[in-house]
Amino acid sequence: MAKKAVVLLAEGFEEVEAITPIDYLRRAGIEVTVAAVGKACGESLLVEGSHGIQVAADATLESLAAEKKLESAAWDAVVVPGGLPGADNLAASAETGAFLKAMAGAGKLVCAICASPARVLAPLGLLAGKNFTCYPGEEAKVLAAGAGWKEDRVVADGNIVTSRGAGTAGEFSCAIVAALVSKAEADKLAGRLLLG
Length: 196
Fold this sequence. Notes:
Blueprint: E1 4-9, H1 15-27, E2 31-36, E3 46-48, E4 54-56, E5 59-60, H2 61-66, E6 77-80, H3 86-91, H4 94-105, E7 109-113, H5 116-121, E8 131-132, E9 148-149, E10 154-157, E11 160-163, H6 169-180, H7 183-192
Parallel strand pairs: 1-2, 1-6, 2-5, 6-7, 7-11, 8-9
Antiparallel strand pairs: 3-4, 10-11
Helix pairs in contact: 1-6, 6-7
């Protein structure tokens, strides 16, 4: 049975940090659902990124919740792109916060990149006692929460995977594939895509 991941998009997301995981995970055979955050059922599923690129989501977070498809048991991973104001828009969503806490509590993979580790995960307490990385300068918001910042491009600590920014999106995505499928599959994918 294929692994399932949901990628959360709010207005102002960083396009590279969203599209790269969507693409890489699908190449690895992972079933990916793109969920628009901050849009009501029936609204347009187009979400505009921080550089004006619009991406069509598969569903809204609200519609997934209404259809009882937002329980942590339905997913193996959640991916949280960064970008501004995208990360702040995700952080402002109570439904996003509840879902991320449920996923983390169930031991599911919670993956965040760029500003999102600091602005989305940390306020929820999800980085407490964990090693993490994020966009340079954002770590100051997290260190008081008992987390250990690393300068690495990608940091995996238990079920939390974090990364630095758009330039590390490929490595971030391969780390997710390694955690969900296998390191061998991630290495094969990286080779096909000429990473590193």
